[in-house]
Amino acid sequence: MNTTFLVPAREQMSESNLPVYDALQKGLGFVPNLFATLGLSDNGLNRYISFQNAKSSLTNKEKEAINLIVSEVNNCKYCKAAHTAIGKMNGFTDEQTVELRKAKVSFDAKLNALVGLAENITKSRGHIDSKILGSFFEAGYTQENLVDVIIQIGEKTITNYLHSITQIPIDFPAVAEV
Questions:
Q1: Are 152 and 128 in the same domain?
Q2: Which residues span the domain enclosing 158?
Q3: 85-to-32, 33, 113 alpha-carbon distances in Å
Q4: Closest listed residue to residue 25, CA positions, set 4, 14, 9, 44
Q5: What is the DSSP letter of 87?
Q6: Domain membership flag for residue 135
């Protein structure tokens, strides 16, 4: 049984989370409900944002492609909505975000290999198909990229699970199921 949580307000943030909360408010004009919910932990919001913003060998578009397929596999309505919006801000069209969520990318062979791998890792919990891994490397990705894909999947799984359990309201435009 899922329990709906209330989105915590700024006054409920710990001292360690306040700088991040305020920076989100200033930079985005609002604090996404899921990020505010991370603030229920004294260090949760600060810790997660530091993890999310860490350097990666992947581009922002590649990270968004992973975020979309992982959120689809984990059926996180919040993250599908949020990353569709963020994906569009990173240059994807509505149609392309749907293709990414389906792991059937017709517009970019390299991204197709990336989302195929991310989907397989997520579904198999890391017990991947060697052919899919081979396709990833054949597309031009490296071992460093593989490590960063796994880190990105872990980062996105955190928020997928958080929303699944808390059921906080979605504050991004809803997206259709695929």
A1: yes
A2: 60-166
A3: 12, 15, 22
A4: 9
A5: H
A6: yes
